[in-house]
Amino acid sequence: MTRRSAGRVAEVFLAKLPVGLLHEDDRGLVELRLHEAYRRLPRRPVLGQWFEDHPSGIQRGSDIEQRLPSFFANLVPEGHLSTMLHERLGIPPGDHLGLLCAVGRDLPGAVIVQLQEGEAPALAAPASLAEPQAGLRFSLAGVQLKFSMLRAGERFLLPGSDERGTWIVKIAYDALDGLAGNEWTTMEWARRAGFDVPTTELRQLADLANIPVQGNTSVQVFVIRRFDRGDQGERIHQEDFQQILGRGPERKYDDLTYESLAALALRIIGDDAYREILRRLALMVATGNADAHAKNWSVVYPDQVHAQLSPLYDQVFTAQWQDFSREMAFKLGGSKLFSAVTADRFRVLAQRVERTMSTTVSPDEAVGIVEHTIARLADVWATLRDSPQVPPGYREGLTRHWRSVPLLQPHALLI
Q1: Domain residues of the chain, as ranges?
Q2: Residue 382's Cα: distance from chain center in Å?
Q3: Which residues contact 171 (CB under 8 A, 6 or more apart)?
C-alpha cells in the first residue's frame, strides 16, 4: 500500500488550461493557489464562483476532517464509492489528496488534478483486477454507490484508462426498496412537466459489465446521461452550490434556507434562474423530496465563463418510505415541515429575497409560478401514474403525501 507523502504538489487544470497548484503541508492540509497568469486572463474560464468573489485566489483545507480546500473536498467521492476506491486503488485512509489525484482525470465538471511531485498513488490489488481499477478512476459525489460508465449498445462498461464515462449508473440501497424505479419515475415526471432533465433509463444489474459488484442480476439500476460530458466525452464545467458557498460536503445540510439558495441563483445568473428555482422548489414539494441539500443544486458553464442552472439530477420522492424524514433539507418560508407548506410560505420566501436582492420577480409572480407548476405536475401525473415502471409504493406514498401538504391538497383527488 502506498504511504502518504507530505509536501506533495498537484497541478489543477480546467480542461487543458493550467489554473493553479495544490500544496500539501506536513500536517496533510492542502492549499490551492491560483496561477497569476490564469487570474490575469481577460476572459478567463471560471473555476468556481467562490474564487470570483475572493480575489486572493487562495483556498485552504481547514482541519483533519477537511484537509482539502472546500472546492476540492466536494469533488472527492463519499460513502460506498469512497471506501471502494481507497481499498482497490491502495490509497491509505485519510489521504484526501492521494484519493483526489488518483481519480483526478475524471472528476465532475472540467477540473483535472495531476500529482506534480512526490509519490503517486499506486494500485495495490492483484494484477487480475487491473482493468476494473482503471475504470474505477473517477469521482462522483453522493453516498449512494454509483459508477461513471460508457455505453456500448444495450450494455454499460467501465471506461478504460484513457476514457471518461458519459453515463452515471446508480446501484440502489437495499434499505430503500424500489429506489431505482423511484428516481426514474420522479425524473420522468419532471421531464414530462417541462423541466430540463438528462436522458434517463431504468435497467438491470445484468446490463452492467465489469463492475466490482455482485448480486441479483435482475435488480433494477438507474441510469442517467452525464450533463458535464459532451457527446464525445468532452468536459463541460460544473460546480454545485456547496462549492459556490465555499463549504465542505459535511455541511451540506447546515444552516441554509431555500431563500438563500434562490438568492444565490439570482445573484449569479439572474431573474430567469430565480424563476426556475421557484419551479424546482415546487417540484421538490410535489415530489416529497426531503433530500434537496446544497450539493443537489448546480450550475454549468457551457461557454466556460457564464453560469446557468444545470439540468435536474438526484430527484427522489423520499416520502415513499415512511421512515424517511418528513422535513425538508432546509427551511422554506420559515419551516422545514412539508405539512406546513402553503402558498404563503413561498410568498414569505419571495419577500425575503426581494428585500435582499434586486429582482423584477414580485412575490405575487413567485406565488403564481409555484401554483402553476403544481397544477401542471398534477395534470402530468395522470399520464404517468399507471406506467409499469412506477413502483406501487410510489403511487401509495404520493397519495398520502399530497393529502398531507396544504399547497397540494386542492389537487389531491387527481393523485
Answers
A1: 9-127, 132-225, 238-414
A2: 29
A3: 144, 145, 146, 147, 205, 213, 221
